[in-house]
Design goal:
Largest sheet: 9 strands, mixed
Strand content: 15-25%
Oligomer: single chain
Radius of gyration: 19 Å
Strand order of the largest sheet: 1-2-3-5-4-6-7-8-9
Helix content: 25-40%
Order of helices and strands: HEEEEHEHHHEHEHEHEHH
Structural class: alpha/beta
Number of strands: 9
Length: about 325
């Protein structure tokens, strides 16, 4: 018999919503600087009896919030607290995108998960990582592409390509508003609600595919907030077919922002099968750029995984690599 919580999740989101979202109308006007939220931020804890579609932890425990934002639409945020969390000892914080795909394959559209609680819990228990919590921010399937596409990189695209991007997949750009939500609303809430280390050197961001792009973007736009970013299977092609124009725009953006990463960590990786195979030449070009222009204080690493495909099972199998690179003391 299919579980009640799996039915609940399937009805809410559907199979296709988690991959590459479509487009929609703009919610807020985009301006430079510290844009004011249109509505006050609020977070309401959601108990299991109110929402049975909650992850079952392999280790530690979860707290789910429904958050209302002045910058993005209402969404869920799942907090993973490892067994070491006692409310007294400060923990590091890892912000991750596509939060509904991180913890429990019984609840996801493809029955796969990142196994963040298993991998993170094991690394902490083995003493290979200092304790950290994970803030899993759910995507909005309708706006996922618009929220995760680095907005400043659009300026490096030809005008005709920008319009095609808007028409086909993006709609109005939303990445800067998404980052305002993360940095101006969610991060202060986490810092006030949980016992965490609040310094840049203890705060990290990670994701895959489009989530890899927005993780890189978060670090480069807010190096004063995030100490490192992990971008797995980074979606350099921008859309869904091989091309050079989007990867070139991303590289030009990176070249502009690299001087800001004076004491940070930046991790990339990719597989060699299916969609990931499209990234191979573009990741090589990014690696060449980093080798030539990265500031002395930037630690960067790129790993290649032969035969790895573009899915949560593949990312789970290598999740220990970015976690150890970003937060390990080895």
């Amino acid at each position: 018999m299919v579980s009640i919580r799996l039915i609940f999740t399937t009805l809410l989101f559907g199979a296709a919503a988690v991959l590459f979202g479509g487009c929609g109308p703009s919610q807020t006007d985009r301006t430079s600087g510290e844009e004011e939220a249109s509505t006050p931020f609020s977070a309401r804890e959601i108990g299991f009896f109110d929402d049975p579609a909650q992850p079952t932890p392999a280790s530690g425990r979860f707290i789910r919030y429904q958050v209302n934002s002045g910058f993005v639409d209402t969404r869920m945020v799942d907090i993973w607290l490892p067994r070491t969390y006692n409310g007294e000892t400060p923990h590091r914080v890892l912000y991750m995108h596509d939060g509904q795909m991180l913890f429990d394959g019984d609840l996801t559209w493809n029955s796969q998960e990142w196994q963040v609680d298993e991998v993170g819990g094991r690394l902490i228990a083995e003493g290979r990582l200092q304790p950290f919590i994970v803030v899993g921010v759910w995507n909005n399937g309708d706006f996922r592409h618009a929220e995760y596409f680095p907005e400043a990189a659009i300026a490096h695209l030809p005008g005709s390509v920008r319009e095609d991007l808007r028409r086909r997949h993006l709609g109005d750009p939303r990445a800067d508003s998404y980052l305002r939500f993360l940095t101006q609303e969610l991060l202060p809430f986490i810092n006030e609600t949980f016992t965490v280390e609040t310094g840049r050197e203890h705060t990290f961001v990670a994701g895959s595919s489009m989530g890899g792009l927005i993780s890189m973007y978060a670090l480069m736009e807010h190096p004063e907030i995030f100490g490192g970013a992990a971008a797995l299977s980074t979606h350099w092609v921008g859309l869904f077919e091989q091309n050079d124009v989007f990867p070139e725009a991303f590289r030009r953006y990176i070249a502009d922002r690299l001087p800001r990463l004076t004491d940070h960590a930046l991790y990339f990786d990719y597989g060699t099968a299916r969609l990931d195979s499209l990234y191979i030449p573009h990741q090589a070009a990014v690696d060449a750029l980093l080798s030539a222009q990265a500031p002395e204080g930037l630690r960067h690493l790129t790993l290649r995984f032969e035969g790895a495909e573009h899915n949560e099972r593949a990312w789970a199998a290598r999740l220990h690599e970015p976690l150890l690179f970003l937060m390990g003391d080895e």
